[in-house]
């Protein structure tokens, strides 16, 4: 097992850059999640670490070894693919042990390793079955077992849960978290699902258009997003963003606001008449008769433990509120929402956090 270092890593296809200078340090034993929208470069970055894609420029180091020109099989990594990539004519036992067999490992040693991994993944009863006889979750366990049995320095997961239904994804997230705790291995996980990122990661790397937008723990990204992209991407439902104009003494105004809002002293902006973006999490909104966000309800989603409400403000801005419990709010109803001024996030005209 080992840590991982990326220094000024670039990737271009012809004249088209897709990874634009990534610098990253991953400590031994960390669970790191690459997250971002489709096409942001997260899977490409993972494949470059695995050696399945050549890098255009920069350096990738696993432990103390530069692996730019090292073959994938010699890098000390094991990858779990979205498609599972199991051999349909082989049993689970043979699928898990195939890499060891190719490496010439003695049968007795190979058998012990396969059965040990099967115990860890609670699939000892599946060893004689073939992939066609398995559920999606069971196939994913086999793919993970095939990676574990190699005892790699780094595990790489490329959207491994995206083919599973919602309930099974939740179960497999818990299994992966347990597995990481048991093995203590370095794991890098790619997903477009920010809920997976928040629940699994020690560290999240947010990517957009091949550029790292922010690196930090899940709560660091949630509580202090570095820019508008991270603010809008991390959190479910996503953060509400409203354009406001700063006035004197920390007062802000906006067509979306019914009146003015006074920010706490430590949040004042020094520039009067500056355009800013105010961010407020849906869970920080609450029903208030004198709330500064007044509008008409456009959509209601009743989830039992909370009620998600979409509201159209006077300037046609739509916001989302996550209200606790089972509020009897109806579509077309006029409501007022408020929030504690301390809960707001402010971003400048350049999109960066103030």
UniProtKB/TrEMBL annotation:
Q: Which PROSITE patterns match?
A: ABC_TRANSPORTER_1, ABC_TRANSPORTER_2
Name the Pfam families on file: ABC_tran, TOBE_2
Gene Ontology terms, MF aspect: ATP binding
InterPro entries (UniProt xref): AAA+_ATPase, ABC_transporter-like_ATP-bd, ABC_transporter-like_CS, ABC_transpr_MalK-like, ABC_transpr_MalK/UgpC-like, Mo/tungstate-bd_C_term_dom, NA-bd_OB-fold, P-loop_NTPase
Please report the stretch or stretches of sequence annotated as the ABC transporter domain: 4-234
Q: Tell me if ATP-binding is a UniProt keyword of this record.
A: yes
Family from the record: Belongs to the ABC transporter superfamily.
Task: Fetch the PANTHER family from UniProt.
Answer: MALTODEXTRIN IMPORT ATP-BINDING PROTEIN MSMX, MALTOSE_MALTODEXTRIN IMPORT ATP-BINDING PROTEIN MALK
Matching NCBIfam families: PRK11650.1
Q: Mind telling me what this protein is named?
A: Sn-glycerol-3-phosphate ABC transporter ATP-binding protein UgpC
Q: Name its species.
A: Devosia salina
State the encoding gene: ugpC
